[in-house]
Amino acid sequence: MALLGTLSLWVAFLVGLWGAITGFVGGAQGRADLQQSARHATFALFAALLVAVISLEIGIFRHDFSLEYVAAYTSRNLPTFYLWSALYAGQKGSLLFWASVLSFFAMLVQVMTSGRHRVYLPYVAAVTCTVATFFITVMLFAANPFQRMPFVPMDGSGMNPQLQNPGMVFHPPMLYLGYISITIPFAFAISALLTKRLDSDWLVAIRKWTLVSWLFLSIGLLIGMWWAYVELGWGGYWAWDPVENAALLPWLVMTAFLHSVMIQEKRGMLKKWNLALILGAWLLSIFGTFLTRSGVIASVHSFTESPVGYFFAWFLLLAAAASIALYVTRLPLLEAEATLESMVSREASFLFNNLLFIGIAFSVLWGTLFPILSEAFKGTKVTVGPPFFNQVNVPLGLGLLALTGIGPLIAWRRASIPNLKRQFAVPLTSGVFVLLILLVAGIRDVGALMAVSIGGFVLATVIQEFARGARARHRQYGEPTVLALFQLLARNRRRYGGYIVHVAIVLLFVAFAGMSFKTETEATLRPGESAELMGRDGHLYTFTHLGISQYNTLNRYVTAALIEVKRDGKPIGRVRTEKRQHVDALGNKTFEPSTAVGIMSGLRVDLYIVLAGLVNGTEQAVFRFTINPLVWWVWFGGFVLVIGGLIVLWPGGGPPPGTGPRQPRSQAGYAVKLEAVR
Amino acid sequence: MDALSRRAFLAAAVAGAGAAIQDTVRGGRVYDPDRAGRAQAPITAADNDAHIQAIEKKLRCTCGCGLDIYTCRTTDFSCTYSPALHKEVLRLAGQGQTAQQVIDAFVAQYGQAALMAPPRRGFNLLGYYLPRALIVIAGAVLVFLLYRWTRESQTPAPASAPPLDATPEELERLRQELAKLDG
What we know:
The structure holds two protein chains of two kinds. By secondary structure, chain A is α+β, with helices and mostly antiparallel strands. Chain A has three domains: 2-331 and 344-378, no CATH class; 386-516 and 635-652 and 672-677, no CATH class; 518-632, Tick-borne Encephalitis virus Glycoprotein, domain 1, CATH 2.60.98.
């Protein structure tokens, strides 16, 4: 398998190189034969990398410990479920996974792109092959997943216990899919620049790809948050870790793009800006990969330091230089087709929305890199942790949340005063009403007050939009309310799916604000003893230690503590928290004991229990009890976000196929009726 | 079951009973303490002291985890650094030092990297204020550009501009279509 794998990597390398050359030359010279060859190269590239992936998977499932990668990340007793994820558990395997998925997308875009946009495809093939070839180069010369061991060990080292979690099976591929699929819009952008076809046509070709990328990044980030919460045991889901930040950066830029692209589609404006956002999102995805893999910044998520960092640094520099140079030479061709008519217009609100998105992205990037800059320029090592990021980003995030509500209320082109009054009356009243309720309830945390009251404002805008739309359809077509709501969503998925995403953002912000009210305590308990903790939900929680049990299961020795939980004296359930000592098939301990958190999740609070350890080897144990408010709503908000994203992405429901960008369409879903009302 | 295995079974049962008795005597000793990770010291009132926790949340653990001392000592139970740093915080606070004095003592010993966020002075000011300054500048530039663009759009067309190639009916239809977009 090692031979076949290495051979297929070399074939993929040569094919990728060929695809890149024929794509660029074929595109430049307009030679159909070379263009066709580049197209076929993407198919061959995928086939070769698929063989490599299958070779590695066979090695993993056969426990072929002659392969260094298999020996380093698996063991004979590793559960089958995690054998699948071993493909991307380590640096080398994840590079192979990355290149393979990219080659799949490269092939898919060649197959799926419709006739009108095929003119971009030779360069798209060239760019995707170039990027894939870079990843294959890194594997062949610095991180070969098929590298052999000098001897064959009896068993492998096993997988890090923190990766043996369902969240880690799905988090990396989702995030990778998001990262990797950005390459397709980037390739179209480069193609548009090279072909000088810089109208809004190329944006139509990438519309679905940008949404796919954004959706995968969103899912990846959410699963990563869930994994951090249930696995790492510190009681939170976001720590502004450099690698978390690296994943957030392209998401922020892609979200900015998804908003600003509407201005180009509707008004032919912001061409330069939209191109810059796509180029920036891709460069940030490579930058994130560099951060994760170079070891330049310490992180709980990163792979160990390795020479691949140099490859990524050079690739990033070259790609950035080439992209920016190409972009600058085409600037004269990117003039807007229209001008802004009013400061009070949806276009203007989207521009401020973009300002905040990019502002947050910059401050996250700046905070992530500041320790390196400080050491380089001042020789002083500093730490930039959550306090820094929260100080800078919370106000910006709240501003962004407010714009989430303001944007949809302002008309395109120019909003009149009566229009503004009519649009803002209910949402603003709702926001103020929510604020008053919170103040009466005794809440004084400024951040939480603002997040929840602005959330109330945004939620009211969305409800108002749905209600007006449904009412208009009811009047015009006589549809019952439920059917009218459904039709509204089905007929204009992009707009109303987007509103559902806005609802998800509100849920997420409110849930984030809830963490300001978490309470926690540590306690040492003998069996039968209890600890009490008052939650901010007004209930007294009692945690009674029932006892410790030890047993063997799968690939680990377990020490479990059982805790009975009472709320205001009434039993509400039992929670188990564990210490896990992982072992290999020979019974040898493989890692330091890990902690499995016990969580009792509810709509109002999560009870989060961690077994710290035992006192003198007895059943007397040390626990940390945390009451985390509103965490359930983070996951529910994430679910709603994905549903909203899928609605936007679902085929149909938009303009008829073949129509250009800026074709008139019933964007509001009820515009016809509004005119009839007038 | 042959005689040998019966004897072995009985021996194991007796040993098990003995272990149970021993457990009772020792107050519930677990089967294999090594499987439960590093032994923990009982929690004291100082460990739960909000004042101590607030100090520790501002100080970084030196184990390389990137977490603050409080989070590390209550999360990474294999870390040997955070319990020692916690004891150091307790010792300094026990001497009557204020929170700031404890933090200053850590900075004196470990450098600025001991802080979870760099102090607001010198080069670090760039860290804090550059993003904000750039956002404010970008916002001002955006407002200026918006102002200029909207003024340009309001400037009447020059007299030499060609007349619109549309009938009044078509212009009315256009007006209505644009009004739809405004909705």
